[in-house]
Amino acid sequence: MSINEEDYVKYLVNCKTHDDVMFFTTKGKVYRVRGYEVPLYSRQSKGLPIVNLLPIEKDENISSIVKVTPAKDDLEFNDKYLIFATKSGLVKKTSIDEFINIRNSGKIAIGLREDDELISVKVSDGAQHVILGSSEGRMVIFDENEIRPMGRSASGVKGINLEAAECIGMEVGSLEDNILIVTSEGYGKKTFVKDYRITKRL
After folding, report:
1. Which of 44, 52, 64, 197 has the greatest number of C-beta atoms within 10 Å?
2. Low-confidence ranges of the chain (pLDDT < 70)
3. For 42-69, what is the HEC assignment?
C-alpha cells in the first residue's frame, strides 16, 4: 500500500462482500456499508479517502471499525452485543440488533458526555471479559455481565478509575486468550489474560 510520510495504517479489517462493516466515530456516531460497497484497489494504490465513502463531519474521526455477519434473513445478526469504551473510562453494552437499520447519514451509537470521546467498539457473544487499559499503564479486567445491556442513547457506566490518565484501549476475550500491550515508545509485552487479577467493574 502506498501512503504519504505523514500518514500511517491504523485499521485492518477482514470481511466478505456481504458482511456489514460498521464505522464508529469519536463523536459517537455509527455508519454502515456492505463489504461489496468498498471499492477494490490494487496492492500499491492509496485507496479511497474515508470522506468519499462516508458523510462524516470535519471534526469526526473514525475510532473503530467492526465487521458483523448478518443472519440468513438479514433481520438479525449472528453476534449478540457491541461493547463500547470512552476516553473517560465509561463502558456500555448494547444489543447489536439495535444497529440493523442505519441511515446513510449515520446513527447515534452512544450518548457522549461533554469532553468525552468514543475510543473503541468490540463485538461480543455475551460471555466474554472486558479489558480496559489506561495511558498510565494500569489495566482492569472484568466479566462483561457486570454491564447490563443499555440502549443506543445511553452514556454507559464507569469501567475504570482514572485520575490524570485516559482510557486508551479496550479488548474483549476469554481468560485463555493472550493480550499484547504496546507502549508509545514501541515496547511490547504478551501475556495471558488469566495472569491478571479479575476485578469487579469500577
Report:
1. 64
2. 1-11, 70-79, 202
3. CCCCCCCCHHHCCCCCCCCCEEEEEEEC
